[in-house]
Amino acid sequence: MYCSNCGNKVDEDAYVCLNCGVILKKRENKVKSKKNNIKLFNVVTLVFSIISFILSFSLFFYDISEVGMYTKTYERIIYGLGFVSTTMFFTIISLIFALVNKKSNIGKIGLGLTLISVFLILTEIFVIVIY
């Protein structure tokens, strides 16, 4: 890379030209793109967490009366895992995103929603096994 002011060759990671002292603009672009990536990651974390919460909350409104035809406990567990499989997928994905992004406020919100989803899923499986 070359300095736009004096034409001297400078290092790719340089912030200032050592020859003339001009601040190089490339560094600012990296910071802006990093902030955009963080914002996108926050949005993805929040979206997956909300989907996970909505799906796990909606499980309580489904009719699970057909679980009564399964008499053995492991059959009920298999039914319960199949019943919540899509919700578990979104919960696992949102948990990964939330744990990676846990330092930001949106990551903390996502982690909270995801943990509520985990609790709701475990409760639903427990109800199916006991029912």
Q: Care to describe what's here?
A:
By secondary structure, the chain is mainly alpha-helical. The chain has one domain (34-130). 66% of the residues lie in helices and 0% in strands. It contains four helices and no strands. It has helices at 26-58, 73-83, 85-100, 105-130. Helix 1 packs antiparallel against helix 3, helix 1 runs parallel beside helix 4 and helix 3 (85-100) runs antiparallel to helix 4 (105-130). The longest helix has 33 residues, at 26-58. The chain is rod-shaped. 21% of the residues are buried.
Characterize this entry briefly.
The chain has one domain (34-130). The protein contains four helices and no strands.
Task: Itemize the secondary structure elements and their pairings.
Blueprint: H1 26-58, H2 73-83, H3 85-100, H4 105-130
Helix pairs in contact: 1-3, 1-4, 2-4, 3-4
